[in-house]
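Action item from last meeting closed. Structure (291 res):
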């Protein structure tokens, strides 16, 4: 990965405001010096988690990794920008990865979301998910245009090659970035319309659309806990994160009635320029990360 923006990002961000992902929010929050000092030091933040993933009605041991990094996004091509341009949009990107085995064969799940750090967009600019296992693989991509444009590819005949246009609503995938940018300040609360995580939609073969959900926030001494419940889907997501900047996510759980919940608990967090650490001499860092 080449971070072409890192030497200019601080000046680009000066004076720009942020908009939340909520459906009707008009609040603007200015990026703080604390935010810039943490996120623009030429490194990614890598957090690893002990994962217990419920799949096929059983819990599977595995690992989850959240990789957060700032980069420049090309609004025209809807991808990471290769070159500096005044049209680029600085974003906070999350690559969320899960690895676990189901009996003899492995699963690999990756979701990505790109949340703007300037401009007028109220939602993630893009979100994707891919799932690979021995039976085949699936892919889902959302682009934030006039509407949400969603493409789905799948080895299942009933799901493959879909192109969907949806009215914009809150994306569960973008809430993970919203927490890291704003903490608890702009998380939605109450009755909302929300598009569930792409991982859930593909694993459970659910229609890609917004569903009614109830969002709540509980503030405790050291942690805030955000809960999102979908009555129709009989699913509850809970995310616990530090209430002080940089709002590191400590754990999460996903419960789909009547099964035991999927859980993830943080092992460690490191700031690393990992794209420059692809030599064998850096392999020891995997052990330090608990991988």
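Sequence:
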């Amino acid at each position: 990965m080449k971070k072409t923006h890192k030497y200019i990002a601080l000046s680009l961000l000066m004076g720009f405001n942020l908009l939340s992902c909520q459906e009707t929010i008009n609040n603007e929050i200015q990026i703080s010096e604390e935010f810039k000092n943490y996120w623009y030091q030429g490194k990614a933040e890598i957090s690893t988690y002990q994962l217990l993933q419920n799949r096929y009605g059983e819990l599977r041991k595995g690992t989850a990794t959240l990789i957060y990094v700032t980069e420049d996004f090309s609004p025209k091509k809807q991808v990471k920008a290769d070159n500096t341009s005044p049209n680029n949009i600085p974003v906070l990107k999350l690559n969320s990865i899960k690895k676990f085995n189901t009996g003899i064969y492995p699963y690999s799940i990756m979701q990505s979301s790109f949340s703007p750090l300037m401009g007028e967009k109220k939602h993630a600019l893009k979100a994707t998910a891919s799932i690979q296992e021995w039976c085949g693989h699936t892919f889902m991509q959302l682009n934030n245009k006039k509407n949400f444009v969603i493409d789905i590819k799948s080895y299942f005949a009933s799901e493959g090659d879909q192109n969907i246009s949806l009215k914009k609503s809150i994306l569960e995938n973008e809430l993970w970035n919203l927490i890291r940018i704003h903490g608890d300040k702009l998380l939605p609360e109450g009755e909302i319309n929300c598009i569930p995580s792409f991982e859930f939609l593909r694993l459970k073969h659910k229609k890609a659309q917004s569903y009614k959900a109830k969002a709540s926030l509980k503030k405790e001494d050291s942690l805030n806990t955000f809960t999102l419940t979908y009555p129709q889907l009989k699913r509850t997501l809970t995310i616990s994160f530090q209430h002080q900047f940089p709002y590191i996510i400590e754990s999460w759980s996903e419960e789909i009635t009547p099964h035991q919940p999927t859980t993830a608990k943080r092992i460690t967090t490191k700031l690393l320029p990992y794209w420059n650490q692809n030599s064998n001499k850096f392999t020891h860092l995997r052990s330090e990360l608990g991988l």
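Note appended to the action item: Confidence is low (pLDDT under 50) at residues 1-29.
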